[in-house]
C-alpha cells in the first residue's frame, strides 16, 4: 500500500518536485484569458466544458473525456491523477520514469476548473475505479479562466475532495496546493493563491487527505539553492 507520513518520504511525494517544475511550463497562460472584472461562476457549477479556447475546442474536450471514460470503465488503476493541463501535460518519458512502477492513470484535461472535474467524477464511469491513491491538483483555472475569488475556489476544491472521498472511501488523496503565479510576492494574483492554499491546507485530516505545497520549491531562492532540481524562475 502506498502511504504518506512525516517519517517516510515515498516516491509519490518526491515526485511532487517534478510536478512543480512541470507546472512552470504549463500553468501560466490561463491567467491571461479572463478580462479584468469578468467573472464566471465555476466552483460548484457541475458542468462539462462550455467555453471553447484557441487551444482546445469543446468537441476536443468531449473526445478527451470519452477517452478517460473508456479508460475508467476498465477499472485497472491504483494511482489516479486528476486535474487540469498541469496534470495532463506530463511528457510520456517523464511519466514513465516517475510513475511507470505504479498502475497509474492520467485524468487531467487542460483548462478544467473544479466544476468540470465534478462533472467528470459524476459522468465518466469513475465509479468503476478503485484507486489506492488519488493525486489532485485543481483550481488555477478557477482564477485564470473564471475570475473567481479565493473563497469561491476553496468551495470548489472542497467539493471535489468530498466527491473523491465518497467515490473512493479507502483511497488516500494527495491534495496539491495551487501553484504560485507571478514573480513578485506581493502581486495580487500571487496573494490570492496564497490565501486559497491556507484554506485548502485545512482539508488535510492526516488519515485520508494529505495536503502538500510545492510552491516554495518553485519560487523560493533558498529552496532552489538547497534543491538543484527546483526551477529557476516563477510563473
From TrEMBL:
Signal sequence segment: 1-32
SGNH hydrolase-type esterase domain mapped to chain residues: 81-221
PANTHER family: PLATELET-ACTIVATING FACTOR ACETYLHYDROLASE, PLATELET-ACTIVATING FACTOR ACETYLHYDROLASE IB SUBUNIT BETA HOMOLOG
InterPro entries found in the cross-reference section: SGNH_hydro, SGNH_hydro_sf
Organism from which the protein derives: Pseudoduganella armeniaca
TM helices/strands, residue ranges: none
UniProt keyword list: Signal
Pfam families referenced in this protein's UniProt entry, alphabetically: Lipase_GDSL_2 (PF13472)
Family note: Belongs to the 'GDSL' lipolytic enzyme family. Platelet-activating factor acetylhydrolase IB beta/gamma subunits subfamily.
Gene Ontology MF: a single term: hydrolase activity, acting on ester bonds
Domain of life: Bacteria
Name under which the protein is recorded: Mucin-desulfating sulfatase
Lineage, uppermost ranks: Bacteria, Pseudomonadati, Pseudomonadota, Betaproteobacteria, Burkholderiales
